């Protein structure tokens, strides 16, 4: 994880002064490193370490706590503002994507998807509202981690696809047109609850978008 955190900070330092970056700008260098290290190590374990480093660097604050035990004095990004890193011009989707990918690596997809849905239900009661765009980013993070660590063959295939240069569409579907900012009343009126056919159909539509990304086929 320390090796990947160091690479993350190197990319940030090299990008200082650029007002907006894509997460894809990090994926290429990270997976090039993973591909190189996997010549003498397990590609699955390298991808796991990479994903956990992403979650520490960009994800939920609780992952940042883990970084304290991994980060050393020589790993510094010069106080780089990570909020400048985005997916579809949104930083919050970066956070959703890498956090659920990290949880998937640590705990499995059942809890990963549950955590994402539970957060959105909670958000529906507050000012941000329920967001299917966030759910899509969560579920993509889960799928990304699944493919990255499913087997040595799958791990190497993902490394080959992303190493060097990567574009957002290589690992993240278009989600910006999905409903978001739904109040609790709006969500219940349109979708009822998490176990209704209407809600299930929306989740299936999201999963179909994810499945169309070449990396996840």
Give the tags.
mainly alpha; 10 helices; 2 strands
Describe this entry's structure for a reader.
This protein is mostly helical and 217 residues long. It has ten helices and two strands. It has helices at 2-14, 24-37, 43-58, 61-70, 91-107, 109-124, 132-149, 152-162, 184-191, 197-212; strands at 21-22, 85-86. It has a two-stranded parallel sheet. Helix 5 runs antiparallel to helix 6. The protein is globular. The model is unreliable at 114-127 (pLDDT under 50).
Question: How would you summarize the topology of this molecule?
Answer:
Elements: H1 2-14, E1 21-22, H2 24-37, H3 43-58, H4 61-70, E2 85-86, H5 91-107, H6 109-124, H7 132-149, H8 152-162, H9 184-191, H10 197-212
Helix pairs in contact: 1-2, 1-3, 2-3, 2-8, 3-4, 3-5, 5-6, 5-7, 6-7, 7-10
> Which word captures the global form?
globular
Estimated share of beta-strand residues = under 5%
> What are the secondary-structure elements, in order, as H or E?
HEHHHEHHHHHH
Outline the biggest β-sheet: 2 strands, parallel
**What is the residue-averaged pLDDT?**
89
Intertermini distance: 28 Å
Question: What can be said about this structure in brief?
Answer:
This protein has 217 residues and is mainly α.
